[in-house]
Amino acid sequence: MASEVEITLPREKRGVERNDPRLIVIYAPPKMGKTTLMSTLPNNLILDLEEGAGFVESMSMTIIGWEKPKELPEVRAARLEKGHYYMTEVGASIMKAGRPYDFITVDTATKLEEFALPLANARYKATPIGKDYDGNDVRELPRGAGYLYLRLAFEDCIERIRKLANTVILIGHLRDSVIEKAGKEVNAKDLDLTGKIKQTTCATADAVGYLHRGLDNELLINFKGSDEILCGSRCPHLKGVEVKIADYNKEDNCLENVDWSLIFPDKFNKKID
Asked: How far is the C-alpha of 83 from the C-alpha of 174, rounded, in Å?
């Protein structure tokens, strides 16, 4: 019988060890400047899943899928010449380089869900009930049975990406929906992910923010949760607040006065009261 581990039980509260979110979700309407904003974050590698980062000056890589398939040498050479990569080969290179990035941004989480679909299919086919399945979209299984496998595959993708940097940022699209409140229908802002994938992703994240423009065209990230807007934070400095992250210069079509220390005070040495 193994000897018992001697554990020192705590007798007092432990001090705060971290302020910065480790996993943060930021979602916004189209053309709000999500990728442009991410390009201003120092030492941030943008994993561009939708080939949108090429329109801004950024440190980015174009990701065209999750797992690298078997391919002919000439096909692989042509793909690499275009700068198109699979997530598994990029992840391996990042780990081999010693995790050199402070931040990894996934642009977008919505597209990552599509990338997880082949993994979900393989996961289902590996089960006794799915061994004879010859389809390629588990979402079509009766009674929604396939969504479990898609959620598990997506969660696995997120966990593997989280190993690549101390902080991971998931960029998401906005999904407008209608909810009933006090007997009336009202518009709600929601993250464009499927059902329980959205729920588990937001529950895992340390902060979920809604990016939008203010009355003076400033760029704001709302962390104040409500029935109408999906957002919130377990980080005290972001809980229940709306942060002005940048000014938008409409004339020059650029961002100014970007202040990431409001989101990541530990990294940028800003004191938290």
From this structure: 28
